Amino acid sequence: MPFKPVENPKCPKCEKSVYAAEERVAGGYKFHKSCFKCGMCGKMLDSTNVTEHEKELYCKNCHGRKYGPKGYGFGGGAGCLSMDSGAHLSDPDPDITFTRAPLLSKAVIKAPEGEGCPRCGGYVYAAEQMLARGRAFHKTCFKCADCKKGLDSISCCEGPDKDIYCRVCYGKKFGPKGYGYGQGGGTLQSDCYADLEQAPKTTVIDTAIIKAPPGQGCPRCGGVVFAAEEVLAKGRPWHRKCFKCKDCTKTLDSIIACDGPDRDVYCKTCYGKKWGPHGYGFACGSGFLQTDGLTEDEISATRPFYNPDTTSIKAPPGQGCPRCGGMVFAAEQQLAKGTMWHKKCFNCAECHRPLDSVLACDGPDKEIHCRACYGKLFGPKGFGFGHAPTLVCADGAAPAIHNPSPNSGPKAAPGQGCARCGYAVYAAEQMISKNRIWHKRCFSCTDCSRSLDSTNLNDAPNGEIYCRGCYGKNFGPKGVGFGMGAGTLTMA
Known about the structure:
It is flat, with a radius of gyration of 50 Å. It is built from six helices and 20 strands. Among the domains are: about 10-70, Cysteine Rich Protein (Ribbon); about 115-200, Cysteine Rich Protein; about 410-480, Ribbon (Cysteine Rich Protein), CATH 2.10.110. By secondary structure, the protein is mainly β. Helix content is about 10%, strand content about 15%. Its main location: nucleus.
């Protein structure tokens, strides 16, 4: 059998065989790499700018000039007006005739009343439906009722006459009219619509028609409040329409609403005027000064104030508030010294200043104090501690500093109290050494009575504490070179 070579495709431009290593494909034809260029301007082409027409290659610009639309407005200018009749695009078969009548196949099959396209009445299939007003339109019917402009889901406006419009036509027909609305002074009119159609009536709902049982409805009108219009304030539901300031009737929301002590709601401004502090410096002006001639009790009497009695519910012994003995609930509890206090009772036992977890100091008298009162009662005293007027010195000698011994209360159990005085040591004044607890005032050198801290403390073998100098004298090495002199050499 004679050898038959493989036939390779021919390049449409040079009619020579095209091999795989040099082929370029366009329009279903294979070209040489060197032939893959525009037939008009000779520009080399690639897959992004090639356009094929009848086995000829063009760049996009040349293809548009030769086969694109021509005439004024198509980028070619008046000089490019062409008399080309498009004969090269005509169908060679003269027996086939064409008609320009619109295709109305969508309206051939009529749908039942109210189920088809609202514009033409035909069945609407899923591939061509457009939704508006809860009904399906044909894509070709989905256009403005006035200007017939094609619409989409963004530009479609549903009119009150159950038809669809573009935004411009909707504004002209149903939008506000008059001076300032783009219609000019000549279109000022008292009617809502230019064509004298009646405007759609706004329904004003009387929320008080359906009365609720006493204490369960809207606090403003007394009507039943349904979930779709419910607004909550002071633990009661309000109508959205009724949720406004009692004084200025400003509509409120959850941010600007203020619950007044009279069980009503106010805006922040009216609440401040009615219930806020008055007097100079509170933005109410000098006309609202109320300090002259009025006592604190008289000012407080003009405002509604609820003072709960914390002792009304007594707690079991040792479980209630240490100050009043009443039951302490979770919403008002304050913790100190391992016990719960009322927020109202959580104040300094001396000056009655309100306290918090930062300011409160637990005293050894099982009470709580502010820092200033705690320092006066239980803090160190003498020169340098803010009590200089109590120093007495008339002859120039050093003042005798009275350092009271902690002898208040009973002695602690053996091994549990202060190692020096034996009394109980509280957390605010304890110092720790060799796993033993000391009072801060007792934490001093046994020999020279110098006050100690964690930097100069030395624990001795006899269980006492010393400063560094005294520790060296008592327990340090002795002899020549250790600061004691030659006469003190010892074998001890």
